[in-house]
Amino acid sequence: MKAFLAAIESNGQSCGDCAVRPFSICASLDKAEMQEFEHLSRHARFASCETVFAEEEITVSFYNVLEGVMRLYKLLPDGRRQIVGFALPGDFIGMTVSGRNNFSADAISDVEVCRFSKASFQRFAEDKPHLLRRINEMAIRELALAREHMVLLGRRSAEEKVATFLISWRDRLARQKGASATLPLPMSRQDIADYLGLTIETVSRTFTKLERDGVIEIISGGVRLLDPARAEALAAA
Amino acid sequence: MKAFLAAIESNGQSCGDCAVRPFSICASLDKAEMQEFEHLSRHARFASCETVFAEEEITVSFYNVLEGVMRLYKLLPDGRRQIVGFALPGDFIGMTVSGRNNFSADAISDVEVCRFSKASFQRFAEDKPHLLRRINEMAIRELALAREHMVLLGRRSAEEKVATFLISWRDRLARQKGASATLPLPMSRQDIADYLGLTIETVSRTFTKLERDGVIEIISGGVRLLDPARAEALAAA
DNA sequence: GGCTGCTATTGATCTGCGTCAATCATCCCG
DNA sequence: CGGGATGATTGACGCAGATCAATAGCAGCC
Questions:
Q1: Which residues of chain A, if any, have pLDDT below 50?
Q2: Set of chain A residues whose Cβ sits within 8 Å of the Cβ of B76
């Protein structure tokens, strides 16, 4: 058992050659801090559809996403689901005030994370203003995204929702791997629906309509943006 | 002109007897810091319906709300509005990453604020980990509220939306002035509609329905919670 | 008191999206 | 290759909430 755990939870390569460092909170650390920080983390992997943590559980770890995509969501008692975001490499998740997770997270693709115990992370961060400012900055950025999403959920039509989703997904991927008209969509239609406050049928119909209108082409595992300008117009207005 | 400005923008009473201190970011400051901090702030007042700042403007100030209620909202180009939150005494607003406001704010009632210039505030906060942690904590709390609100906007019925709004408004006021079954609602029906992603007519009809069902009584300037348990049940499920 | 303006309520009707159900496309696995 | 699982698409229909329109309250003001 111990060997098994060691296999799935290891330090892997060092932070020195970490691909997501410039995007993550680690970008704020200097060399010495980095070395200390490295000892606090353990790599972990999750297969597609595995749960990483659940809402309301006591928070024991924070996570830095290294690879893959996770869905972050909240459930109502009757099972209705709202996806509050997708986590990509570089995202730092798990911070709470209450000490309990305020959403659930599971892997959409195979996922690799850097895991920190909450206690040791907090001890490390306590007196490092530059790290605190960095975390702050990321929280404020998240907050701005959350508010954008409120507008989408409260005030936009199905077609606008889907177009906005495609454009902002494209822009998010572009920041990581450079711009491309071909968008991989690792999440299911159901995930997209729960993210946009729609049903799976409406998402499907809207994709079809956008394809009929020549805005996109639906391909296996994603979408090709044929008319980005038109999509952007739908997303803006 | 100078005298006029002095009249509307003064330090007023000192932070020493500030009523919202325990709720605000200032709670993290010690006595000496407090004194320094006091010199950075200017009191300002806004009449009901006055704009405090607008989305996309360059952020020049941060605000601590001392008294009154503000609505924080985003507009789509065609005028559709989403209220992303209401600010109450103790709330700290204005933090951005981009340097531009990511929402507009105007006074719903007469409002009194503590205003800080962005630059001097940032200089002051720079190397104060306890203050940074406090700001962090508030940002994370905001984020949790924002995610709660996404669930409401994306997945709840009109009746659930209104009930949830009333219950969480009650709880928020309770934290400030103690519990009460009589809820003042300083915002208009239109504001409530734009907060909940509904129309004014639907909000009005839902209030009426809740009154018919004996859950609330609609009174001038607010609502009385006749059956809090029933309202909570609607808000939960 | 009566007029004006504004917000809230109520009613009638419409419609975008949800619901229910059938079919299709992929992929796996024997 | 065929069968069965799973997810996506399409169609028919219904309804919650939007839209359009007509009062109703109510405060301010002459």
A1: 1-11
A2: 151, 155-156, 237
Q: Which nucleotide is nearest to B207 (CA to C1')?
A: C9
Using DSSP, state whether B106 is helix, strand or coil.
Answer: strand
Q: In whole angstroms, how large is the CA radius of gyration of chain B?
A: 19
B199: helix, coil or strand? coil
0.90 exceeded by pTM: yes
What's the half-sphere exposure (Cβ side, CA atoms, 13 Å) at B86?
A: 25
A231 CA, D16 C1': Å apart: 29
Mention every residue, 6+ apart, whose C-beta is less than 8 A from residue B144.
A96, A97, A98, A102
Comparing every residue's Cα with the C1' atom of nucleotide C9, the nearest one is B204
Average pLDDT estimate for B218-226: 96
Residues of B in contact with A102 (CB under 8 A): 144, 147
The token pair that represents A174 in the structure block: 């572009």
Tell me the C-alpha distance between A208 and A227, whole Å. 15
Length of chain A: 237
Q: Distance between CA A194 and CA A80 in Å, rounded? A: 9
pLDDT tens digits, residue range B226-237?
A: 999 999 999 998
Q: Other CB atoms closer than 10 Å to residue A219's CB: what's the count?
A: 12
